[in-house]
Amino acid sequence: xxxxxxxxxxxxxxxxxxxxxxxxxxxxxxxxxxxxxxxxxxxxxxxxxxxxxxxxxxxxxxxxxxxxxxxxxxxxxxxxxxxxxxxxxxxxxxxxxxxxxxxxxxxxxxxxxxxxxxxxxxxxxxxxxxxxxxxxxxxxxxxxxxxxxxxxxxxxxxxxxxxxxxxxxxxxxxxxxxxxxxxxxxxxxxxxxxxxxxxxxxxxxxxxxxxxxxxxxxxxxxxxxxxxxxxxxxxxxxxxxxxxxxxxxxxxxxxxxxxxxxxxxxxxxxxxxxxxxxxxxxxxxxxxxxxxxxxxxxxxxxxxxxxxxxxxxxxxxxxxxxxxxxxxxxxxxxxxxxxxxxxxxxxxxxxxxxxxxxxxxxxxxxxxxxxxxxxxxxxxxxxxxxxxxxxxxxxxxxxxxxxxxxxxxxxxxxxxxxxxxxxxxxxxxxxxxxxxxxxxxxxxxxxxxxxxxxxxxxxxxxxxxxxxxxxxxxxxxxxxxxxxxxxxxxxxxxxxxxxxxxxxxxxxxxxxxxxxxxxxxxxxxxxxxxxxxxxxxxxxxxxxxxxxxxxxxxxxxxxxxxxxxxxxxxxxxxxxxxxxxxxxxxxxxxxxxxxxxxxxxxxxxxxxxxxxxxxxxxxxxxxxxxxxxxxxxxxxxxxxxxxxxxxxxxxxxxxxxxxxxxxxxxxxxx
Length: 670
Description:
The chain is of the alpha+beta class. The protein contains 28 helices and 20 strands.
């Protein structure tokens, strides 16, 4: 397709489709009907490797799709659409969130295994294996053992295995022999093992015992095979490193990782299979994939892109334009998205990508910005939601990570290792074991965060936090202090700004109030002006017009037209509009323009600019030229004073004069 421009007639439909196919909780936690599940799933090369009967261990971060894959395997109807060898049977060995598996829940297992040793844990897994295969095992069980396995009581099950484990192993060997003679394989899937026990320390004994059980029988059972889905940090921990069973599984493992191409192929596949799509939207999506020859169709898997390369660039550019972000952090759209959902290890999950697009599309419903379906500000706001959600997930896995926002508050990032270690040292003194990492020194804490991808190390040795975690940890970049005279903001204005621009779910955010918020009442009860800080920590000016059906609404309409005319000229001395809109709920309209940190009304401002009289004269001429452009359009600037002329610092930018320490510019602020 030569022109991948998204027609504005499809904007609303595509936004609603993104919200529908990208549920807030991500991929695997949604209870979708069986007719949709495979159409929502992308069978990547790594997923195919994980499905192989020769793969015993599937490793992945949270949100990588482990539970989604496990659920597809466990469902007989869905399993028909997966590339499994013929005559393969799947049973659930343990999966807390897989509905009614017939197995004891995690709480009752924990109670029964309290104080148990490795041998007792292995006996419990043996009993759970027997329960999962009870129907297949019945020909080889006596009445007493069959009755014991039928009881959904972990304590009774453990007692029975202590007395009859030999008979259990003999029955399983006979079942394996029968499967071998029939040319069939039986896979036992295990998921949610991190939910077995309430603390990190108590998790490893049952997991090691599960590995040990299957390793001990690996030369006996030829057709009975495990498939364990496990978090990467659990398998890679020191506690698992030297377990014999872990070594056995490590040679038969597959890791669920997602490339950028696969992530966008998943997103586009979900859109292609969304119902109902209009013919026009479906045609655009097909063309996005390269036309009819670029898509495949399968009775179970639905419609899918044949090639994923190039989808990211084409899709995000059509949706949001060529760049996302603002100022020095702006970058190509596809790069910006990946940079903000990728951890320090370079890995990104489907859950983060889907959550990003879902939230951005939802915010764009009420966003006023010509020429773009989902504005940049919506993605910036959505990324904050992604970051906060990801940190909450990490806290559920490791409670001590929930202490990081408190300890890192006010930190300047990137930071020297010693500085960060000093901030993290109090973790080692926590009395609550759940809030104390399994480390002896603060240096080990930093190393652990580096391995988990929560920190990265720069070339100069300083430590940084990936964008994926910055907002969740409450970290922001430094902002120059506000030196203007303080005028206290009224509670009414502050509440209004919070609701519209600053709260986490603010419809027109994300912005934040400066440390010393102030307001300027331009016209009492009609027009208020205030300063906000955007997501890139750059200042903006917001003008609030009260009364949409009164003179306030008329003033807003005139202001928008004037500012749009000025912005199109991109004159360095004239204000630049960011966005604008109206909110009927609060009966207000607004305009947001770029702002600077200082004006010519600051103390000693005139003395400072007088140090470079030639540059000051040049800026004065630019300012007068900008005013002449206003006059050409019949616009009169009625409020010209030093306080309305902003002072912009540009740094050393002139190639002809590289030694110039500071350059500056003037700009009319309103």
